């Protein structure tokens, strides 16, 4: 896809200088991870812009370490926030308190399909 858009697929990607790990508040089964809230956090870290003239930090974003259906333990890393501007962590973290749910261990979880349908 990168080549098709005229990019160099072998180019080294930028890496943010600062990281902050978000850990599970409790042990159990990760049953929900809200993509909107995670996206807002990424934007607040500098991965996106509110206005076209706003700068974008190419290395900023959110790295996920668990997905819905995974068993997690209290304190286990769920995601790592990346930015070059550590002052942005507090603002980004405000988007995440309700971004995920952990149900008690043994809770059954029916994963949603990754692909709902294919359009030819």
From TrEMBL:
<dbReference type="GO" id="GO:0006213">
    <property type="term" value="P:pyrimidine nucleoside metabolic process"/>
</dbReference>
<dbReference type="GO" id="GO:0009032">
    <property type="term" value="F:thymidine phosphorylase activity"/>
</dbReference>
<dbReference type="GO" id="GO:0005829">
    <property type="term" value="C:cytosol"/>
</dbReference>
<dbReference type="GO" id="GO:0006206">
    <property type="term" value="P:pyrimidine nucleobase metabolic process"/>
</dbReference>
<dbReference type="InterPro" id="IPR013102">
    <property type="entry name" value="PYNP_C"/>
</dbReference>
<dbReference type="InterPro" id="IPR036566">
    <property type="entry name" value="PYNP-like_C_sf"/>
</dbReference>
<dbReference type="InterPro" id="IPR000053">
    <property type="entry name" value="Thymidine/pyrmidine_PPase"/>
</dbReference>
<dbReference type="Pfam" id="PF07831">
    <property type="entry name" value="PYNP_C"/>
</dbReference>
<feature type="domain" description="Pyrimidine nucleoside phosphorylase C-terminal">
    <location>
        <begin position="29"/>
        <end position="103"/>
    </location>
</feature>
<dbReference type="GO" id="GO:0004645">
    <property type="term" value="F:1,4-alpha-oligoglucan phosphorylase activity"/>
</dbReference>
<protein>
    <recommendedName>
        <fullName>Pyrimidine nucleoside phosphorylase C-terminal domain-containing protein</fullName>
    </recommendedName>
</protein>
<keyword id="KW-0808">Transferase</keyword>
């Amino acid at each position: 896809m990168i080549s098709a858009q005229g990019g160099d697929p072998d180019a080294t990607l930028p890496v943010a200088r600062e990281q902050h790990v978000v850990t599970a508040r409790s042990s159990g089964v990760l049953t929900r991870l809200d993509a909107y809230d995670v996206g807002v956090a990424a934007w607040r870290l500098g991965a996106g812009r509110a206005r076209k003239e706003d700068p974008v930090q190419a290395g900023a974003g959110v790295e996920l370490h668990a997905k819905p259906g995974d068993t997690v333990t209290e304190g286990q890393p769920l995601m790592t926030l990346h930015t070059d501007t550590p002052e942005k962590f507090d603002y980004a973290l405000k988007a995440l308190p309700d971004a995920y749910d952990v149900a008690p261990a043994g809770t059954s979880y029916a994963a949603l399909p990754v692909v709902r349908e294919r359009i030819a």
